[in-house]
Write a structure and sequence with these properties.
about 525 residues, five-stranded antiparallel beta sheet, flat
Length: about 525
């Protein structure tokens, strides 16, 4: 059957998420408990370094570890993080000017090339001086150039270390000179080294035997310094597969060494800390030989029958709007796992995680051998984009361009990479979607009634508000009636007293005239 590309893409994406939703969902075997394996994980050599780790650089697979999370003083291997940040944040052609503030932070007895205040060097020469001559004074100048101050650069170091996956580290300076608050672990240094040895220029300078700086306008002194690393060519412990290496030493840290080697397509990183000289070189070589002799890389795409297959076997043809058949889901063809020699890929287990920040990446398949994480592969969703050609011949040019791009992609890869879709899981997902649709249809009428009641109530409130606003507006615009004149109130008429009303001096200032009978008060007879 032929299905439109976008509809099928949406359907299969939904099915994929429903089938494998969540983090750490089991796909084959179990990812939480040990499973039976055909070959035991190899036991590493007995080394004298206090802590050590050996990892595969691309996958991060831990092949050997000894106290890998124990916090230790790193000494000058700190400088691989300093140079990594310098390459990422700076311009190799910029001049780094050395200031009094930067040089004052460097103890007199530390490793240096004796630059003076006001001198300057290109950033690339500074990186060479740091990695070859382990120049602390140059490291301080680079830190100030990148961040403005030593303290600000230390904050950048801690932020970058956290981004790289470090969990045991705290840095306070760019060169590793001893400080009680400056520490890390073998595991953290291996994570930093993975990023460091992925940059070509850093690999080049970390494998150079001699530093030679010619006199220049910024510094008129010719500099010759020798690299003390004994793993380099023509040295005592020369290792032929070495990619790069950085040494370190303080009385408190002991001998520290971080190195990278590559053989037969497998790239290993080794970190040893707190060793006694020359055991740091002996331990490193033994660990490299252990890794190369006991492990091999196995391609995931060619061996994984769980996720990778051809959609044509299920009679499903994915087509875009032009009719071109294109893969919908694909897996990273360059991904691989690291297995002990003699182990079979069928002994691995895997699980899916859906959280990813990479564009078009649908999920990541993680693989384990027993309880060892041995690699991962990203699963992508192909995005079909319809391009618009010239307006003169729109139809034919679009079809020709799409066909040409598809043929070119097939010629380069040799085959189409698609993801295996388990039909049973897809049917389960489809059933879940159908049940959800039925439930939605069943509750559709009550839901509509509730929505209608809510809309009706909202309409009534709106009408009430409009009427209230109308009345208030009309009342405000209505002219006020003129005030009526009040009638003048006349004073009340004087009160007329009757003859029987008693006389009061307050009511009349003059006494009423009456016939007054006169009595003689001396007359005792009482006669008038």
């Amino acid at each position: 059957m032929r299905l439109p590309h976008k509809i099928l893409a949406a359907f299969l994406a939904a099915a994929f998420f429903l089938c494998y939703a969540g983090t750490g969902v089991q796909a084959t075997g179990t990812a939480e408990t040990d499973t039976a394996v055909s070959v035991d994980w190899p036991t590493g050599p007995a080394i004298s370094s206090e802590t050590a780790i050996l990892i595969e650089a691309d996958t991060g697979t831990i092949l050997y570890e000894k106290n890998m999370h124990q916090q230790m003083y790193p000494a000058s291997i700190t400088k691989i993080l300093t140079c990594l940040i310098a390459v990422e944040e700076g311009n190799l052609e910029d001049n780094v000017v050395f200031t009094q503030e930067a040089l004052d932070t460097i103890p007199y007895d530390s490793s240096r090339i004796w630059v003076d205040v006001g001198e300057y060097l290109p950033l690339e020469d500074c990186i060479a001086a740091i990695l070859i001559a382990s120049a602390n004074d140059v490291a301080a100048g680079v830190a100030e150039y990148i961040a403005g101050s030593i303290d600000a650069f230390a904050d950048m170091m801690n932020e970058r270390a956290e981004e790289l996956g470090c969990v045991d580290s705290h840095f306070v300076n760019p060169h590793g000179y001893h400080d009680d608050d400056h520490y890390t672990s073998a595991y953290d240094m291996a994570q930093i080294a993975r990023a460091f040895f992925s940059v070509d220029i850093l690999c080049t300078y970390s494998s150079e035997r001699t530093l030679h700086l010619y006199p220049s306008e910024g510094r008129d002194v010719e500099t010759w310094e020798s690299n003390k690393n004994q793993l380099l060519e023509t040295r005592t412990y020369e290792y032929e597969y070495l990619v790069g290496s950085k040494t370190g030493y303080t009385d408190m840290a002991g001998q520290t060494l971080v190195s990278c080697a590559q053989k037969d397509g497998m790239k290993l990183i080794c970190v040893v800390m707190n060793a006694t000289s020359p055991q740091q070189y002996v331990d490193t070589i033994e660990l490299f030989e252990f890794g190369f002799n006991n492990f091999t890389t196995v391609d995931i795409y060619e061996n994984d029958s769980t996720y990778v297959s051809d959609l044509s076997s299920y009679d499903v043809e994915v087509t875009d709007i032009l009719g071109n058949s294109t893969p919908l889901l694909s897996m990273d063809t360059d991904a691989f796992v690291v297995l002990p020699n003699g182990a079979d890929f069928s002994d691995t287990t895997s699980y899916i995680t859906l959280a990813t920040e990479e564009e078009n990446c649908l999920a990541t398949a993680h693989y384990l051998y027993g309880d060892h994480e041995i690699g991962s592969a990203q699963i992508y969703m192909e995005v079909s984009e319809t391009t618009t050609a010239s307006t003169e011949t729109p139809g034919e040019l679009e079809v020709e361009q799409a066909v040409s791009e598809e043929e070119t992609a097939v010629e380069e890869t040799g085959e189409r990479q698609v993801l295996f879709i388990n039909i049973r899981n897809v049917l389960i997902a489809a059933a879940v979607l159908i049940v959800a649709a039925l439930l939605l249809w069943f509750f559709k009428k009550p839901l509509q009634q509730r929505i209608q009641r809510r809309l009706h109530a909202l309409s009534l409130r709106t009408r009430y508000r409009k009427r209230r606003d109308y009345r208030e507006t009309r009342s405000a615009l209505k002219p006020k009636p003129m005030a009526r004149k009040k009638k003048r109130k006349h004073p009340p008429a004087p009160h007329r007293r009757s003859s029987s009303y008693p006389v009061s001096r307050h009511m009349d200032s003059q006494p009423r005239r009456r016939d007054v009978q006169m009595f003689d008060i001396n007359d005792k007879t009482g006669k008038k």
